[in-house]
DNA sequence: GTCTATACTGCGATAGAC
DNA sequence: GTCTATCGCAGTATAGAC
């Protein structure tokens, strides 16, 4: 009976702390799957490749995640959890320049630290959002309208230029995600990977152009 | 012997104008392949799906294009032909505002008219540019450096703010291609496809923000 | 829990009748 | 030039020994 009272890391029928192994393996598989899905999309990825990358036999992947689609949605779920945490608490009383600069910096940091997540999301959207169809539900559209409303309020208050909020958000999304999704193109163009300092410079540039373009004065660059 | 003197639309051994059929079929296949590759990438696309979409038996696709990879590079070649035609003749003497606005408008028009081309390119880059490795050669990097040099000259002449040319180009590329690559996300967010007028508004917004962000005065919007 | 062996399907590609 | 039939292989998924 004690077994049933155990917390989240479940125990097996043998009473052994197999949760440890399970957790470790599931993480390996999820990480391997993320890399493969980021490169080849859902259809282009094979369970074999995922298993090999995770250092496990193919059957084990099916043991932990029943099907390829199941594994995919799990990977997707993890990504969407990482996402959308910022920019949630945006209000009319915030300073537009500070809020926008902060959002751009957060998005860029995400591109730098989780490029695979961005790529998987991009692949999924390009492929027609078959798996994300329920993600773009009423809640999501309401979130989007909420942010747009704040922009409109700022504009009405004369705090910034009359820029279409939707297109502004798209602009921020695309220009920041670009550094994750197209990292290979960037690498080939200037012959080397983007360093942390390169990302900082890119952030500064984006913030300078976008904020000035909206009639805002960029806040001072934070210390680095 | 006359057969051998015939111009490009070749004739078959039967002397019939089979070039017509060949041309028509090849076009169908290329169009079908573009749609499939745009959705599923190279690995995720099957020759069967292409053949079905083109309304031909699978074997015919192999007859016209020897292999899947051959067909893919052919599709890619067509795309790269469409691309990169604009912005080539940029010189220091051009007016920055006019030139940038024009480039943004051209890129947006491309996103509107050839979304599949943009998607295939995006997929290829996200997948690591395996097929495009030779596309990013010295010539390409020189092209890029050439444009950047013009920006630097404009900046040195005090015609625009000191914006990093590379990041500015990335910004224009990403924000315009976004309307092609992420069209599905956009459609789901605001419940309908972007119309021609929507694209025009998006262009105007991008031009307004980016040009002002670079310290430039946008030229008057052309008549529509 | 783990892994080998295997069922079954769909893939890219080709042979060969028409 | 066109299309059916088929080869060989890689794909997802599962059964069952350990």
Topology:
Two copies of one chain form a homodimer.
Chain A: H1 2-5, H2 18-44, H3 47-54, H4 58-64, H5 68-82, H6 96-113, H7 115-126, H8 138-156, H9 165-181, H10 183-190, H11 196-213
Helix pairs in contact in A: 2-3, 2-5, 2-7, 3-4, 6-9, 6-11, 7-9, 9-11
The structure holds a DNA duplex (18 and 18 nucleotides).
Descriptive account of the structure:
- Chain A has a domain at 74-213: Orthogonal Bundle (Tetracycline Repressor, domain 2).
- Chain A is built from 11 helices and no strands.
- Chain A has helices spanning 2-5, 18-44, 47-54, 58-64, 68-82, 96-113, 115-126, 138-156, 165-181, 183-190, 196-213.
- In chain A, helix 6 runs parallel beside helix 9 (165-181) and helix 9 packs antiparallel against helix 11 (196-213).
- Residues 1-16 of chain A have low confidence and may be disordered.
- Chain A binds a DNA duplex (18 and 18 nucleotides) through residues 12-14, 16, 18, 21-22, 46-48, 56-60, 62-63, 66-68.
Please provide a brief summary of the model.
Chain A has 224 residues and is mostly helical. Chain A has helices at 2-5, 18-44, 47-54, 58-64, 68-82, 96-113, 115-126, 138-156, 165-181, 183-190, 196-213.
